[in-house]
Amino acid sequence: MRPVTVAAAQVGPIALETTRSATVTRLIGLMQRAKARGADLIVYPELALTTFFPRWYFEDEADLDRFYERQMPGPETRPLFEAAGDLGIGFSIGYAELTADGTRFNTAILVDTSGAIVGKYRKIHLPGHREHEPWRAFQHLEKRYFAPGNLGFRVFDAFGGRIGMAICNDRRWPETYRVLGLQGAEMVLIGYNTPIHNPPAPEHDRLSWHHNEIVLQSGAYQNATFVVGVAKAGVEEGVPQMGGSLIAAPTGETIAQAVTEGDELVIATCDLDLCKSYRDSVFAFERHREPGAYALVTGTKGPVTPEEAQKIDPALARPDD
Ligand code: CDV
Fold first, then answer.
1. Nearest C-alpha neighbor of 232 from the set 169, 168, 172, 171
2. Residue boundaries of the structural domains of the chain
3. Which atom of ligand 1 lies at the shortest distance from residue 123's CA?
4. Residue to mutate, 105, 145, 194, ligand 1, most ligand atoms under 8 Å from C-beta
5. Which terminal CB of the chain, N or C, has fewer other CB atoms within 10 Å?
């Protein structure tokens, strides 16, 4: 057995004016409670240090800067790293990153039980829109405020296993999990901020929890990995965001799930050896995958006509005798 006790630290709303230090103190409280309940690793949501600021249009780029971290740890976040080191617990957290060359990323890091950063991921699938769209009840300006991640989907050997990270909208895309699965990921950590109301498609609203659960479960099952989904939940600055934080096993089952829309620890002890049974049988990639038949997956970004598809994958044009 290779047990890892993981705590999905669902976080309730963070107000616009809440200070970084107040939020870090709150996150440390969750960390202490997780440690008391035996956790080796605590996972915080996407952009966990501030309110979900892409819901506002800021005309002046300078107004944005207060939401971003220029260093990690920085003066206000260092106490989180120190608490982790003192308690001997690892963590993963999402935050807005502003690099030295001025690039903005939606980032997550993995920190080991000594308080050292051992992995970084920058969000690749950025949802929403780039321009101000006043008709919406609220904005979702991730495409404006972040560049697409440039680190790919990497795995990190830590906590006695192989860990991958993804962020929010990434969880809806099978490619995310498959790229991590092909590198042997045994646990994928995914923080999210998901408004229940989807302005361009309000007919999806009632299905938010269903969609969350099916993508996390299928990502886990189809790639023989645990998946930890962690929400920033509740009504934040007037916008209801879904909770539903959960831990899915390689069986495809949810083994622990939040019951509130506020601060809540969702904890499970995950035996990473459970991944092996699926990876050695139905999802033994090296025996059963047929990448030669998947040319369209990387050969086009959007839908193509059947004729265009044949140019990308000549097998689609072959006479069927
Ligand atoms: N933060 C996100 O990436 N949110 C998206 C919403 C906008 C659909 C999500 O996929 O949950």
1. 168
2. 3-289, 293-321
3. 3
4. 194
5. C
Active site residue 308: no
Distance CA 148, CA 116 (A): 25
Question: Which among 35, 97, 123, 236 is annotated as catalytic?
Answer: 123
Amino acid at 267: I
Per the structure block, which two tokens stand in for 53?
């600021």
In short, whether 168's Cβ falls inside 6 Å of ligand 1 is yes
**Catalytic-residue membership of 311:** no
Q: What is the widest separation between alpha-carbon atoms in the chain?
A: 69
Q: Which of 288, 218, 210, 280 is nearest to 250 (CA)?
A: 218
Give me the amino acid identity at 231.
Answer: A
Q: Which of 168, 186, 264, 270 is catalytic?
A: 168
38-95, pLDDT tens digit by residue? 999 999 999 999 999 999 999 988 899 999 999 999 999 999 999 999 999 999 999 9
**What are the Cα distances from residue 146, in Å, to 53, 141, 166?**
12, 9, 15
* CATH number for region 3-289: 3.60.110.10
The predicted model scores a pTM of: 0.98
Two tokens, residue 176: 């995310």
Report CA(167)–ligand 1 centroid distance (Å): 9
CA atoms within 13 A on the CB side of 311: 5
